[in-house]
Automatic annotation (TrEMBL):
Gene3D superfamilies: 2.60.120.380, Galactose-binding domain-like (2.60.120.260), Glycoside hydrolase family 3 C-terminal domain (3.40.50.1700), Glycoside hydrolase, family 3, N-terminal domain (3.20.20.300), Immunoglobulins (2.60.40.10)
Protein name per Swiss-Prot or TrEMBL: Beta-glucosidase
CDD domains xrefs: beta-trefoil_FSCN_BglX-like
Species of the source: Streptomyces achromogenes
Residue stretches making up the CBM6 domain: 831-955
InterPro entries linked to this entry: Actin-crosslinking, BXL, CBM6, Cellulose-bd_IV, Fn3-like, Galactose-bd-like_sf, GH, Glyco_hydro_3_C
An example molecular function term from Gene Ontology annotations: beta-glucosidase activity
This enzyme's EC code(s): 3.2.1.21
PROSITE patterns: CBM6 (PS51175)
Record-stated family: Belongs to the glycosyl hydrolase 3 family.
Length: 956
């Protein structure tokens, strides 16, 4: 007999459209199968030959968390390149390494959680390193390039499936799972949604990840915007993956729902398709979905909708067509091309902030290199482990010769003496440590951090001289002479066991607390003090159970950092001070910064360098902007942590092998006083970012100098067929080949509402040889000149003059011209017919937007239940002043609350008061009051007390 071969199921047939194949596979899955797919770690379905699948592989600037990989500059550094072609190539390289690593390790996922497109609205945000820019146009352009690189060019099969983070209006780590971002409609549509929308519409995005925070009082994981906006931007199925632990936050920290079944159902109905919660354990999510189904909160069709979107991504990744997947054999990993690309990206991201002619450095320059970052190549939370590393010091040694370079880290060298007269002692590293050193001799942090087999610190008569590194705000690290950082493992003992500070909870940071005639040493990771016990130096046990009393240490400074700087700068022509941050300390995920200023210790090192008889060059290697005094400096540069090639790239720029052409992707403010509150998301009202900031920045958005000079000429502007065509000629008038970033901005000359001072429309990075000129053309849709008109609930191009500005930064404008655009004229609000949605105000003071219901809509409340003001311009009350009008106010209140109405800044003409609380925050009542008005007026509403205003209606 001939063996019967079962027919190929339709979901395995590559000749069928994906939609039909997904229908077939869905029909074969049981409800239990489908529910299990809703967790991040979806199990295999063996009877169908369907493999396990997990969402989530971090790939922000290289493959993260999975061991050695090519490490590119941080995202903010890629943003500083203003080069979409470069960033696309970086995305290609990263996705190829994902595929290559996946072939060796099935834990590596193809659904990559990158890039981060949150706008860098506030420079104190701890995750500033993860975003591209404060500007939505630049952010979307860079993000689109990166996603296209991650996706690949094949028309059917994707190399990886990018997921954008973090939806929406997320710029604070302080209380990030409980704070609400109050985002008025204009800010929502003109600012926060734009970076997501433009990138999604470009067609290379597989999904988004909601953020931990709330927006307008409603958690992002139940946001109606997922349905109302996100999924209307593309015909592709978008996979919405929750952030880690966020589904449980809806009940546990936010208290938005009473039960996890309610919260899970609401998330699924809002559009969340994959729940990242409880690590690899999917049982809790499965139980919650099952409970929601049993309670009638969900139907199987709701589950199917989410699973369909998951399967759409899996089919696009070629999972069910291994023989047809063009990316299945990708093996490009740590190739010479990837290493060269990392170097190119690092070079292109360097921004020259100031230069009085000292740069580039002559070949015979005697250089003193000082600073905490001078001999470091830092990685961040979303980095892979670099296979190759280059520090600024190493780069300068290689470029100028070790004999011309002197180095001092500039840290304090200290001894810690105990009350018994002994000193902390670091035992020598056992020979076994040599086995965990990488190819270039660096200790591998993945193998050292948290180790308990190394000997703990002790106390003896000699002790060990430690490097005390002060990172600011009282946070310090302690390092042994061989470079190992003091760390605390799970057993509570102190060991020299980390190559760098790191980890979700950093175990390498301490604080010295004055105590009597000495100091207590507080370990910040555990929150416990260091003591000297019989089994070694350790932190006190939990709940006050100590094996010894906290030790009181005397701090003995053997050499101060300033003295070390003075020692090495004596014979230098130039002092290069390399300052900045450690990406795991004082500003990172879970921790916002508190100031723009450099740490006090680094400011002292800078002052010591300036006191030397040499010219001072400040190099800032940091994940975010700083405020400093540039006047006394001969030159200043900034680069984000530039990945594995950072040091060599910086040395090539300093030497003039490469002309710097990075541009600032966000405003550098001069002082903390220039900043709004971290939680004030109203970029228009608070005049935030270069778009609205009215002060004098330290360095403006788009700023960056060059070793060459460029002339701009022959600006032409032509408006036809719904587009503005702008062109000019740019010529390299310098004596070296260099890149220039040509930037096009616009501003409305006479707007009816507050509009940006100038707004980026497009940019182009070009390379020109000496004397070479290039024609640069921009083609801009007229929709780019529109704003969100709250009176009509949509975008509107206002007619009138618009200035087109072309130049080298937002403030360095070289050419300008005016174009008069046709559009829709301003019309008064027809308030008698339509009333006013409370959130559609033109200006506000002292208010915040909250959720009208848990499912959708907005209301407005006085901040903190106090008083607030709302202004609605040009309200048309119609004719008929003889007829008394009626105001219908839709409102809730938790106590006595009043809404006051006045016209054109005049006296209160009507007020509506709720004397008693309503049954709950969503139990709206409509209260009438007489109000007489006709004609067109500005309407002002005063909100008094703990109320939530949803709508105001008028009739006559």
């Amino acid at each position: 007999m001939t063996a019967h071969t079962p027919p190929t199921p339709p979901f395995r047939d590559p000749q069928l459209p994906f939609a039909k194949r997904i229908d077939d596979l869905l029909s074969r899955l049981t409800l239990d199968d489908k529910v299990s797919f809703l967790h991040q770690f979806a199990p295999a379905v063996e009877r169908l030959g369907v493999d396990a699948f997990r969402t989530g592989q971090e790939a922000l600037h290289g493959v993260a968390w999975m061991g050695p990989a090519t490490v590119f500059p941080q995202a903010v550094g890629l943003g500083a390149t203003w080069n979409t072609d470069l960033v696309r190539r970086v995305g290609e390289a990263v996705s190829k390494e994902v595929r290559a690593m996946r072939a060796l390790d099935e834990r590596v996922g193809l659904n990559v959680w990158a890039p981060t497109v949150n706008l860098l609205r506030h420079p104190l945000w701890g995750r500033n390193e993860e975003g591209y820019s404060e500007d939505p146009k630049l952010t979307s352009a860079i993000a689109t390039a990166y996603t296209h690189g991650l996706r690949g060019d094949h028309p059917t099969y994707w190399r990886t499936a990018p997921v954008l983070k973090h939806w929406l209006a997320h710029n604070n780590e302080t209380g990030r799972d409980v704070t609400s971002s109050s985002v008025r409609p204009r800010v929502l549509h003109e600012y926060d949604l734009r970076a997501f929308r433009d990138t999604v519409e470009a067609g290379a995005v597989a999904g988004v990840m909601p953020a931990y925070n709330l927006v307008n009082g409603r958690p992002n994981h139940v946001s109606p915007y997922l349905r109302e906006h996100l999924r209307t931007w593309t015909d592709e199925d978008l996979l919405v993956c929750s952030d880690a632990g966020a589904p449980s936050n809806l009940v546990d920290s936010e208290h938005y729902f009473d039960t996890h079944e309610e919260a899970t159902a609401a998330s699924l109905l809002a559009g969340v398709d994959s729940f990242t919660d409880h690590g690899t354990d999917g049982s809790k999510i499965v139980a919650r979905v099952r409970g929601a189904l049993e309670q009638g909160l969900l139907t199987e069709a709701d589950v199917d909708a989410a699973v369909r979107r998951q399967l759409s991504v899996r089919f696009r990744l070629g999972e069910f067509d291994p023989r047809d997947d063009p990316h299945a054999g990708t093996g490009e990993f740590d190739t010479p091309a990837h290493r060269a690309l990392a170097a190119e990206a690092a070079e292109q991201s360097v921004v020259l902030l100031r230069n009085d002619g000292v740069l580039p450095l002559a070949a015979d320059t005697r250089i003193a290199v000082v600073g905490l970052l001078a001999d470091e190549c830092k990685v961040d939370w979303y980095s892979g482990t670099p296979i190759h590393r280059s520090t600024p010091l190493e780069g300068l040694y290689e470029r100028f010769g070790a004999e011309r370079v002197e180095f001092a880290e500039g840290v304090d060298r200290v001894l810690l003496r105990t009350s018994a007269g002994t000193f902390l002692k670091v035992p020598a590293a056992p020979e076994a440590c040599d086995e965990v050193r990488g190819a270039e001799g660096a200790l591998d942090p993945a193998l050292l951090a948290g180790r308990t087999d190394l000997p703990p610190l002790t106390a003896d008569a000699d002790g060990t001289e430690l490097a005390l590194v002060d990172w600011g705000e009282g946070v310090l690290t302690l390092r042994a002479p061989d470079g190992r950082y003091l760390s605390v493992a799970e057993d509570g003992l102190l060991r020299a066991s980390a190559d760098q500070p790191g980890g979700w909870v950093v175990q390498e940071t301490f604080r010295l607390e004055p105590h009597g005639n000495g100091h207590l040493l507080l370990h910040l990771g555990t929150g416990r003090h260091v003591c000297v016990a019989a089994d070694g130096v350790r932190v006190a046990g939990p709940d006050g159970e100590t094996r010894a009393d906290p030790e009181v240490f005397e701090l003995i400074v053997v050499e101060s950092g300033e003295s070390a700087v003075t020692r090495v700068t004596a014979g230098a022509d130039v002092v290069v001070v390399v300052a900045g941050n450690d990406p795991h300390i004082n500003g990172r995920e879970t921790e916002d910064r508190t100031t723009l200023r450099l740490p006090a210790h680094q400011e002292r090192l800078l002052a010591a360098a300036r006191a030397a008889d040499a010219r001072t060059v400040l190099v800032l290697v940091s994940a975010y902007p700083y405020a400093f005094e540039p006047g006394p400096l001969a030159a200043a540069l900034w680069t984000a942590h530039g990945g594995q090639a950072a040091g060599a790239a910086l040395a090539r720029v300093l030497a003039g092998d490469v002309s710097p052409a990075g541009r600032l992707p966000q405003t550098w403010y001069a002082d903390d006083a220039d900043l709004p509150d971290l939680l004030d998301y109203d970029v228009i009202g608070a005049r935030q970012t270069y778009l609205y900031f009215e002060g004098a920045p330290l360095f403006p958005f788009g700023h960056g100098l060059s070793y060459a000079s460029f002339s701009y000429a022959d600006l032409t502007v032509r408006v036809t067929d719904g587009r503005a065509h702008v062109a000019c000629t740019v010529t390299n008038t310098g004596d070296m080949t260099a890149d220039e970033v040509v930037q096009l901005y616009a501003r409305a000359v006479d707007p009816s509402v507050v509009r940006p001072r100038r707004e980026l429309l497009d940019c182009r990075r070009i390379t020109l040889t000496p004397g070479e000129g290039a024609d640069v053309a921009f083609d801009v849709p007229l929709s780019a000149f529109a704003f969100w008109d709250v009176a009509r609930g949509g975008p509107r191009l206002e007619p009138g003059p618009y200035e087109l500005l072309v130049g080298a930064s937002s403030e360095d404008v070289r050419l300008r011209a005016t174009a008069v655009l046709d559009g829709e004229p301003t019309a008064p609000r027809a308030v008698r017919a339509d009333g006013l949605a409370a959130a559609d105000f033109d200006e506000q003071g002292g208010t915040e937007i909250v959720d009208r219901t848990k499912e959708s809509g907005d209301a407005v409340t006085p901040a903190g239940g106090g008083t607030g003001e709302l202004l609605y311009r040009a309200c048309d009350f119609g004719a008929g002043a003889d007829t008394p009008g009626v105001t219908a106010v839709t409102v809730t209140a938790s106590g006595q609350g009043t809404v006051e109405l006045s016209l054109d800044g005049g006296p209160v003409l009507a007020s509506v008061t709720l004397q008693a609380p309503t049954p709950g925050p969503y139990a709206y009542v409509t209260v009438d009051a007489p109000f007489v008005a006709d004609g067109v007026h500005d309407l002002r509403l005063g909100l008094r007390g703990p109320l939530r205003l949803a709508h105001v209606g008028f009739s006559g």
